[in-house]
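Standup notes, protein team

Yesterday: finished cleaning the Actinoplanes regularis set.
Today: proline dehydrogenase structure.
Blockers: none.

Input for proline dehydrogenase:
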Amino acid sequence: MLRSLFRAAAGSARLERLVESTPGSKEMVKRFVAGGDAEGALRTVRGLTDDGLAVSLDHLGPESATPERARAVRDEYVALLSRLRDAGLTPAAEVSVKLSALGQLIDEKTAYEHARAICSAAAEAGTTVTLAAEEHTTTDATLETLVELRREFPSTGAVLQAYLRRTEGDCRELATAGSRVRLCKGAYAEPESVAFQSSLDVDKSYVRCLNILMAGEGYPMVATHDPRLIAIAEDRARWFDRGPGEFEFQLLYGVRPEEQARLAAGGHTVRVYLPYGRQWYGYLMHRLAERPANVALFARAVSSR
Ligand code: FAD
């Protein structure tokens, strides 16, 4: 119920204006978002890498509704990658990219060209790109783009969502040598026809997918904060004899930082997903939807002003 409320709020422009003008919301944003621009993001990346963590940067924003906006997003990533390289922050920092922000919904071919430009900038900077997973209606197009990009840039990563019924099959397809796959539960409201609805079914699917990825030849990226799934991933890594550097954990910036430190201290590669940019509202609403405790935190931050 709360989850659907915040998901609905994520799409409300009126609420967005209200939340953005509430001074206390800035405190909450700081917890989950690196800063309004690349400058602030770079500072946060430096702090995280100094602590032994890897990073995947995401430039926040909704889908691009115009070709101009899509080009601006491409340019932002290309400039960011060159700054990361100049600051000596690659390969520890890579980028995560949403094809919808590159205009996938206007013209798939142009979105591919923009993604290609970003992959090329990443290759020059000595790092990688991971394509985010969005609504299920875009999954086929995104995975097709991935196949195209991987011909030229084999290290381009995919994201698979355990809540989708199709994902076990996609894991089998992608558990091959050189393939980087981020496995997450999935963040969108999807219909029963394509997605498991109960958290138990999603968790069971996550474990089946994890087994396939860990048993396969690719590089699994275990993206979850769920203590049970993290423990299962550690167990599977031992079972399949995957040492440090043969898989990684990924967690969102600001979520369970003590767990991020614990995993890194245990010798695991831990990558923090680090969003930055001015359009933080939708992202923040999704984080609130995921965890009622964050709502209380948000309420306190707002009311303390
Ligand atoms: P949840 O079921 O949300 O949480 C499980 C348990 O984790 C909770 O019960 C609690 O014990 C713990 N927990 C969760 N949040 C907190 C918190 N704030 N503080 C303390 N404990 C907490 N989704 C997409 O659809 N597409 C993507 O491309 C995508 N990329 C992602 C990349 C990364 C690196 C990560 C980590 C997530 C990504 N997601 C993406 C989001 C993902 O699908 C989930 O919505 C999100 O990660 C929450 O799921 P969870 O696995 O943490 O489990």
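Follow-up from PR in the comments: Residues 132-133, 159, 161, 182, 184-188, 223-227, 250-252, 255-256, 273, 290-291, 294 surround flavin-adenine dinucleotide (CB under 6 Å).
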